[in-house]
Amino acid sequence: MMTSLARMPVLAGLLLWFSVAGAAQTPPAPSAPSNDDCLMCHGDKDSAVRADKTSVHVDAERYGASLHGQMGLTCVACHTDLATAAEWPHAEKLARPDCSTCHPEPAAHYASSVHGQSRQAGRKVAATCASCHGSHDILPSKDPDSRTYHLNLPRTCGQCHGNDATVAAAHLPGGNVVRSFEDSIHGRALLKGGLLVAPSCSSCHGAHDVRAKSDPASQVARTNVPEVCGRCHEGVKLQFARGKHGEQLQQDNPRGPVCIDCHSAHHIQRSDMSVWQVDVVRECGTCHQESIASYRDTFHGQVTALGFARVATCASCHGAHDVRPQADPASPVNDANIVATCRKCHEGANANFAKYNPHANRHHRDPMPLLYYTGQFMDLLLLGVFSFFGIHTGLWFTKELRLRRQRRRAPPAKADKEQRDDSGAA
User: Fold this and answer.
1) Segment 293-351, tens digit of pLDDT
2) Angle between helices 369-409 and 412-425 (to 10 degrees)
3) CA neighbours closer than 13 Å in the CB half-sphere of residue 328
4) Is the pTM of this model over 0.70?
5) Secondary structure class of 49 (helix, strand, coil)
6) Please, how many CA atoms are within 13 Å of residue 54, restricted to the half-sphere of its CB?
7) Measured distance CA(28)–CA(84) in Å, rounded
8) What is each CA distance from 218 to 22, 51, 208, 302, 397, in whole angstroms?
9) Residue 277 phi, psi dihedral angles, 5° rounding
10) Predicted pLDDT at 413
């Protein structure tokens, strides 16, 4: 028993020696590189170049001032495949940083967006997180230097949607929409006026959940357009909802017009400009073809066709956003209101004046036979007058040619005598 107890310290010492020796032979796990380690290569513009001559330079100062830099995030927080790298330099191609690790909600919206779905379909031209936010110089959206700052969004989105080559290669809908936006009232207010209240790209399309207009969940789907525009134009939205066009939309009528049908989507102009007032008449005619045809036959229509807006257009009589049927007591063209509507331009208008039909169609006999036959008579009269004087002019021209040939063939003395005789006869 005593012998066994004496041997126990020796065994314990042997076990301790073996455990220490084994630990010394096991190599320690490699530590993750620090930002300084990464910047030893990536901080040098000359050395931070791939084999294909593309730069992987990281500006340490800009990263330090970025949102991630201010939070103290390390390089391997995003480049997670380098956290346990055992050999340096690392592989040339690294895994794309997964932003969803820290930003799960925006990442989920992006995945279901037109950009995310395009990426999943293999179209590499589609925008990624870095395309809009940057990579090592990400700034908060409220920072005026941020790519996603309200005033800077058109330039950021314009990297793709304002680049003709990219638009053509990716078959982006609408063409160069950024150029159109820059010329619009919204674009001028935002980019030239610097007004933060003016809408930018994300105001209508959203930020991370940008969807195609054919998607019912898209903010710019037809049925959602009035609501989106109404965020700024609340009063107009209420007027539209009370009008016939708004009722059609509420009844799920696909032919019911919405804001973009009259104002367009990106090239929106001031409604008080004469050019727009004249052009919008044509837009009304896309749905009201018979009305626009009869309108063009009138004095109002003929003048607007020449490009002048000092006469009545469609909105002058029917209203703009709260267009109502004539039978509606609130309609400007209702029998009870038509005189007041005419007096907006014709101060002396009375009930008899207001009986004028601005959409009378002289090409159809049933509604107004007197107008129809009068129009037929005027057409025949015009045709007869032009035919008579056309024949008269042709005969006179033929006679003149014959006389000129005779003068050229006659002797000079006889030709002078004939010319004097013709003058005396005249």
Assistant:
1) 889 988 899 999 888 888 899 999 999 999 999 999 999 999 999 999 999 999 999 99
2) 150
3) 13
4) yes
5) strand
6) 4
7) 12
8) 63, 42, 12, 41, 70
9) -60, -35
10) 61
